[in-house]
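W.,

You were right to be curious about this one. When I first looked at the sequence I had no strong expectations either way, so I just let the prediction run and decided to look at it fresh. Below is the sequence, 577 residues in total, followed by the output.
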Amino acid sequence: MVILLVSAVLIAAVPQRMQAQDGTIADTNIRLYTLQGNMSLQTHAYSTTRVAGFREPLGMLASMNLNYSLLGFRSGMSVRYSTENSQFRQSMNRVSFRAGWRWIDVAAGDVNPTFNRFSLRGLNVRGGEVQLSPGSFSTHFVFGRVNKKVDAFGDADFRTLSYERWLYGTRLRFGSESRSHFGLGVVYAIDRDDELVPSAQSGDNFAFAGRIPVPEENLTISPDFRLMMFGNRVEMRAENTVSVFTRDTRSEALDLSEAGIPDFVSGLYRVRTSTRANFATLINTRFNFNPLTLAVGFERVQPGFRSLGLRNIKDDDQSLSIQPQLMLLSGRLGISSSLRFGRDNLLNQRVSTLYRNDMAVNVQAQLSPELSLAGGYNVLINSARNTGTADDDTLLNYPEQTIISHNFSLQPSYTWVASSSTHSFSVSAMYQALNIDIDRIDRDLNSSFFTTSFSYNLSVFSGFSLNGGVNYAGGSSPGSDFSVTGLTVGLGHAFFDRKVNVNLNGGLSQNTTESDFGDQTLRQSQRQLNGNASAIYRPARQSTIRLTARTVSNTQIQGTGMGFQEFEVRIIIDQRF
């Protein structure tokens, strides 16, 4: 706020002859200041007859984004506040402030840095961030709290306990991020060892038995590079991470002096009995020789790899991908393919190994200015094979199996423009055949699934619009068949020189399932009716007021089950500047 006031004073102090109406100085194109952003406020009312509602009956969400510059100085802030924030989980509210001058950028509050695919990505860090980019060399620093402490609260078994976690990281880069460069990142994260379940309750409260986490610690070192060659026709990129992860910081510390490791290494990171070192790597090579493009990638994540800079990652996984693409007839015909080969059990320590093969071919064609066609075929083969190191009794619990999924898709569409309107037709169809073969099981386990839809859209230049569609889905599997039919219709109109837009949409669907249980056939049938209404008013070019309402009514027609109703109203006010 202080900076905003100072900026206003500086702007007012500049002689009027140096300012133009567009914010430039005198007769030059040098901009004295810029100001842009938006403010949004939305409220909702929600009710349902379900036993447990999915959200609070009343709620509000407010957000603001502001960015401005003054004589080369950049600054801005963003705020997000929701009344639905719960003490039972991590906070969803956000506030951040940014400032920059030439090659210096500073951020405070909630920041979302990205260093590497395997080291730091997708986390919200409440702290600070600094980026220095003088020329082709840059440095990136980040520090702050990742998780707040969530401890036991009575017998609230649904709470997910967590320690307060702090993270510190830095990354050096030589070269431009969008061009050839080399980078090196280091990230350190640790949990504060605070008691989550009071000892006075631990003997009597079994709600958290076996689910009380232990404090963790992690250090990752991540070199990466990107190399552009031959006029950007060849690109090579690699991201690698070595992770030293301690599962329990309460475990016994190890003496590394006998191993010849210097003492300062132990001072940087305390190695314990629960400490493990692993790595993950991603290598991509892309060839772009118009009209052919070829991308080849390899990814490997070692078993037990953990990184506290990520919310989650699948370890013990390896994949090789090949993706060619061909564009013909001035881009009117595109043919693309994808081949992926993956597996787990990389160290052959498990009883069974899962192999995954994925092959796909897709075609997109613009047959005429009005008619386009897209189609594809995809086959997925998942096979579990035993390593041969287990005994016969163990193999009974891990039978070899193969699952093959064939998928066919077709999507034609036709659009034409009349003298005062636009018409559009589209059809979508997809068929899937699933073949399942499990060792020592003789019965038929195969299944099939088919879905299709047809939609029509009419847009009149006067502001009227109409849309409708029908869809059907059906499938069968051993002992069970199901079908789903649906109908949707909607219309809209723009009033008062398109300052007011009103839209109404409704839909009706019914699903039926028949299952065999011995000599009986059980039939379940449900019908769902839904409606949506929205009205948008634009009192000014950068102001919007939106009112939406939706309702859902689900009725059990046949079989066991209970119906329910939902209703929600939402008001959104948005102002851009």
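Here's what jumped out at me. The helical segments are 2-13, 199-202, 263-268, 392-395. And, maybe more interesting for your project: The chain is about 5% helix and 60% strand.

Coffee later to discuss?

I.
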